[in-house]
Amino acid sequence: MGRAVTVATCALNQWALDFEGNLERIVRSIDIAKSKGARYRLGPELEICGYGCSDHFYESDTLLHSFQVLEKLLESPATQDIICDVGMPVLHKNVRYNCRVIFLNKKILLIRPKISLANGGNYRELRWFAPWSKAKHVEEYFLPRIIQEVTGQETVPFGDAVLATKDTCLGAEICEELWAPNSPHIEMGLDGVEIFTNSSGSHHVLRKAHARVDLVNSATAKNGGIYILANQKGCDGDRLYYDGCAMISMNGETVAQGSQFSLDDVEVLVATLDLEDVRSYRAEISSRNLAASKVNPYPRVKVNFALSCPDDVAVPICLPIQWRHHSPEEEISLGPACWLWDYLRRSKQAGFLLPLSGGIDSSATACIVYSMCHQVCLAVKNGNADVLADARRIVNDETYIPEDPRELCKRVFTTCYMASENSSQDTCNRAKLLAEQIGSYHINLSIDAAVKAVVGIFSVVTGRTPRFSVHGGSSRESLALQNVQARIRMVLAYLFAQLALWARGMPGGLLVLGSANVDESLRGYLTKYDCSSADINPIGGISKTDLKNFIQYCIENFQLTALRSIMSAPPTAELEPLVDGQVAQTDEADMGMTYAELSVYGKLRKIAKAGPYSMFCKLINMWKEICSPREVASKVKHFFRMYSVNRHKMTTLTPSYHAENYSPDDNRFDLRPFLYNTSWSWQFRCIDRQVNAL
Fold it and tell me: Is the whole-model pTM more than 0.90?
């Protein structure tokens, strides 16, 4: 009797519609799995075409090219003598399904469509796919001719079935099905399935990894069994970073853990486990055994193949390990850095340009680029040939070896302090010192001439000259003058991004980085089309509170002492005139609320689904020690007025790394109107009635 099974799972950095690259990474993962003795290999969700194809899933080309890749896989010597489980879209009876295609030795064993589709937050699977709603039902699927010619099969099983090998039984889940309240692994386990597989396209959110790990371990803690999870990793073309964390669990304990953040395009985990441990674990769970006696059986596809060897008594078995979680500060340091690297190398640009103001947000963005350079140097040191080739192409030097993060930063990162007459010497010095410590190519310039020229045009046309409030102007005049400065900085940022390398005699252009945090976006505390308008923004999904903690992390881990004075300075836009040479404008005073309060409003609005009245009801209890009901009402009303007045700014928000579940990203995550009745008359009257009653 064979009892020791060797299985492999992987995390692949797939890219939407990159069929050639995706094929190469899939084959490489299968080669690695086989070299380590695996007899079964699991890959991420929709790995053949890439998870993020979006409306390209509607196109027949996507289906065609996916089958062409499948043809190559079936023909490849790498896929012989190992069960391969790959993901791709399949059209069955003119309906598109998100499927697993499981094959062995040029024969397709089963096409398993997804049952529970992800359709919340960033996910829109119901837009492109239909769920398979026929539980434990299998139909015939007529293969395309290009596949028939390879397999010799005309039809294959399509539906909700499990695989019965010579030594065990395997059942597949796909991503969301693990998170569903009626996960298939429950009934599969009761029906004798011993190995559960899950191919995921699960993205990074701060503090989320433990939830995924807990779900996997709890799946086998109650029911026994082996659970194998594969996931995509990297940026496959949009705002999400898929964070790997491939894992293998048995009987409620983790036995293999993949990395959450790395620059390796292909990562393979292999584990050898004893099936008898599953059987003995299940033997004494009487409630499971009673339920198992009543379960309706799954259709079984018989496979003349074993995952174990006949004589395997001496084969070493993997033991449980303790899962190692990153702190939120480490997640911010690593996740956005890996996302930036993917974006940089795949966009074929020569580096980044960041308007560096000397404040917390732009400094945090600079630190993330510095962390990226650290990751690149570490990957090259560890022998990653792909990263070395990408780095050489980016810096246009075929002999270059990145060894020092500061030196790499000098080549790929340009920072620019754009001073005005309202800028203080303190912020100028902070920006310069930080640039020196991380090694960026730093530019100092003044925008005053451009500001005067733009305002001068207005004065010539209208005969009026606007003034700041401190000089006797109205709030309208003051705000317009602040916005002119902010927008000129955006124009200059793009000019320097296009031509800074040209001026230095170097090829290529730079990607402009934005640095508005998630709280400012929610409140709308930014100028439309200012420096928040950029190509991408690595901190646009991160709160001010988390960014401050990240800055402290960088002080301690990267020895960036310049950050100490940045941490202690009050956040300011520096758009109003100085008073006695000192900054008189601060962000929190301008906003009429603190960043800590903004984080609370954001979580209640998005995660708790609270409108003005529900938010008031929750906050009078949360803040009962510090605010009266009338003060709470005033704060809630002010937030919703400002949020609704500024919501239109979210329609032009720079694509940002998605890191928080209360992100106001208007593109796909937080779908709301952008023209509101900002008086909220009915809602606010409900609050007032409660205040009076209290």
Answer: yes
